[in-house]
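Cast an eye over this sequence plus tokens and explain the fold to me:
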Amino acid sequence: MDKFVIEGGKRLKGDIYVSGAKNSVVALLPATLLLDVPCVIENVPDISDVEICLTILRELGASVEKLREGTYRISTLDVTSTEVPAELARKMRASYYFLGALLGRSHRAVAAMPGGCNLGERPIDQHLLAFEALGAETTLIKKIDNDGTAYIDAVELKAEHLYGSNISLNVVSVGATMNAILAAVKAEGITVIENCAREPHIVDLANFLNYMGAHISGAGTHKITIEGTPVLLGNDALEGSVEERIYSVVPDQIEAGTFMVAAAATRGDVLIHGVIPHHMKDIAERLQECGVTVEEVESADRQEVCIRVSVSENRRLHPTNIKTEPYPGFPTDMQPQMAALLCIVDGQSNISEQVWEDRFRYVAELRRMGAHINTTHDGAIIFGVPGLHGARVKACDLRAGAAMIIAGLAAEGTTEITDIYHIERGYSHIVDKLRGIGADMKWISE
């Protein structure tokens, strides 16, 4: 059993670097199935979800070559399979992006229902709505449980042709927006997707596909228009040869936010590199409401704009209220991390969770460390305490695991975090990065 062991109470200080965005790369890798030319993708994070995606590509028949750390050359020219291996699909939520990519490529796709973190009911009905609007037929493959209950085990999509269409999503869904883009980019005619999500990783997917010759406009707004393109060979006006295109994954907004909160919770002084400042606006505002200093500064070589997060050692921090919303609102993937910080500020803070229904399982773990939190049907009330103490806790899911790390860094004594495979799904070299700014943290295999 692997675990993280943290000796808390150390003030984080120094420079830390953000990896490529998990939520982007898990869509960009399936998107390579739509390309009619090899490509090179840089700034790929070293996380387990990426390894699963790359394994799926190999199983489908793609050539995947690691050129160096974080850089892969991928050719999907010889892919003939349209079925995602079930055991791999069930290991991650984002495996559903292979449905849209394979449908767009081959007009057929089969994939088991996706896995990932247990955050409550996460249906894919909006994805299927988009696929059907483009001309696909959907077959839900059912199985019978041991107690006789029928459940959906897999999805099969088939289409003679894909035609551009008007798609109006009933709810704002990141996954459905990205899957609609993947399925529509080669469809005949014009597709208009309305009520779209606006997250940075949606813009990154559109930028990648446009770089490869697609015609997508409006990404980052509530309305995206796609003019179908039968062949994606790359844009000759951009750098790189027509035989091989090079693209770099956008920085990870959530990893950057996690480092920002960790710096605040430890009364640290941390310079965060490789970040896009305007992606961090709402996170920065919540931290500033707490009394944390957040500022944009140039790096020493003046090659980039970084974010500096600092708190004087004796400064008392204030409570704040958080309501999670689709981008550009406060991201649900930062809610547990902020909760860990709010446990040790003065006064009462309130969190309202508007995205996922079961995102507070981490509360029981924070209580083991001395936190005072009451949960409601859709939120939490946090009463700040003078400090937390180390304990043996578990990572209930990916972002809950990040919250446990932050709590352990701020606590007095030793914190052991188990079930760290959740954390490894989304944070690249998290131990080495935090140790580099002063954390006393170890990865241990028992």
In short: Residues 48-60 form the longest helix (13 residues). The radius of gyration is 22 Å.
